[in-house]
Amino acid sequence: MAGGRAGVADLCGPRLLSANAALSPADLKAALDGEARALGFDCIGVTAPDVLADAGKHFRDFLDAGAHGDMGWLAAHPERRTDPRALWADVRSIVMLGVNYGPDEDPLGVLEQRTSGAISVYAQGDDYHDLIKKRLKALARWLVASSGCEVKVFVDTAAVMEKPLAQAAGLGWQGKHTNLVSRQFGSWLFLGAIFTTLDLPRDETEPDHCGSCRACLDICPTSAFPAPYKLDARRCISYLTIENKGPIPHEFRKAIGNRIYGCDDCLAVCPWNKFAQEGHEAKLAARDELRAPSLAELARLGDASFRARFTKSPVKRIGRDRFVRNVLIAIGNSNDPGLAEAAERLLNDQSPLVRGAAVWALSQLLEREEFEGRATRALSIEPDQTVRAEWSRV
């Protein structure tokens, strides 16, 4: 049902209200709140579809600056992002929902384990799209059956500006790192949206509580924030390791460290996170094997073993080659010559992307003279120009 209308005929459930009960909008909203929390949502708020004027301007400025990089899907149909009514003309209210995924340990601790990989907190368990979508669909079915309305459901897969809508609905505010911050859950909220034809009472917009704090800006390893509340995605490690399909630019490779999928630095240092850890259990079921996996082990993944290891994980979406590229950058940053063997095995990989990253890893781990000797031999047989360029850099 994501992006589509929910049917009414086959909807049923133990807590349904009668569509003929003629509840007041306020009472229906209160019942919706209770049902949402019963389904596992941690916060809920309602806003109007016409609240994105300022956010829309910031988004267009972001696109005009080219700060979205190669994410062409962001630039497609910007009018749909800046005005939900362009996405669905019948929408009257937008219900925003959040699920706490606060970690049960310091996400920055793994950065000191240089022979292990750091995977972003949100990707250490099952894909959040599936987790949230299932709950949203259940709540949407309840709302349709209880009121006779029409709905559309979105979970980060359509042209919806979830974060400014969530702020307008009172769930939190967009911090200086451009992510949503909650007074109850810090920077750790998955978001989902239900568009409905109902006119529900609106919640008040959450004001900005960042004050003079700039911890999230100062910790960024690649200086991806040109100013508070502005992100240049082209410099963001999450973009570089996930969205970027080609070689990682040389200027960012050392700064990436051992981050092999995403980056939590700006989220993890937010002082509001302390409230996410007081009285709230972590809602993300992290897999132990993804908390600090061995780089040497990950470097051995082929296509089949990669898919098997990351089944149901968002990591699977970037594919084996991009992931192993990231692993090799981390190996190059490990300062462990013992990992040179893992990189060397990948010099003959079928993927030029992987071979190029393996060359860089070896350039960081081998003595210069040894690397230059290998480069001379490799250049006589390497057909790909991007890989040849890696051999020729040192």
Automatic annotation (TrEMBL):
GO cellular component: cytoplasm
Keywords (A to Z) from UniProt: 4Fe-4S, Cobalamin, Cobalt, Cytoplasm, Iron, Iron-sulfur, Metal-binding, Oxidoreductase, Queuosine biosynthesis, tRNA processing
Cofactor(s) annotated in UniProt: [4Fe-4S] cluster; cob(II)alamin
Superkingdom, natural source: Bacteria
Keyword Repressor part of the UniProt annotation: no
Binding positions (tRNA): 245
Catalytic residue list: 156 (proton donor)
Similarity comment: family membership: Belongs to the QueG family.
UniProt-listed NCBIfam families: tRNA epoxyqueuosine(34) reductase QueG (TIGR00276)
Name of protein: Epoxyqueuosine reductase
Organism: Bradyrhizobium erythrophlei
Source lineage: Bacteria, Pseudomonadati, Pseudomonadota, Alphaproteobacteria, Hyphomicrobiales
